[in-house]
Amino acid sequence: MLGVFSTALATVVYFRLIRSAGPTFVSQINYLIPLWAVAVGILFLDEAPEPSHLYALALILGGILASRRTPARATAWARRSCRASPRAGPRR
């Protein structure tokens, strides 16, 4: 019975998180699992992180940051980059 109640509670919390934060954000939480694994290894198992671990963590966090950009900011960035380069397309 203990497993049933804790699983039910976790499911309720999970679906409330989806409702409040959105499904995209909740799905990105799974990308943070390697971060927690490295942190637990460093804090509790006295593991030393290798440079490749830190590069991979930076890549994961950069991917999350890039996917969390709002469309308005992404559109503004695209407009700035189009102004900086010559216009592509048919000549008039």
Quote the average pLDDT: 79
| Unreliable sequence segments | none
Oligomer: single chain
Q: How much helix, percentage-wise, in residues?
A: over 70%
- Major sheet description: none
Number of strands: 0
What proportion of the residues form beta strands (DSSP E)?
Answer: under 5%
Distance between the termini: 75 Å
Radius of gyration: 21 Å
Principal-axis shape equals: flat
Structural write-up:
With 92 residues, the chain is an all-alpha fold. It has a domain at 24-72. 75% of the residues lie in helices and 0% in strands. It has 5 helices and no strands. The protein has helices at 2-21, 23-28, 33-44, 51-67, 71-84. The longest helix is centred in the first third of the chain and has 20 residues, at 2-21. It starts with a helix and ends in an 8-residue tail after the last helix. The mean pLDDT is 79.
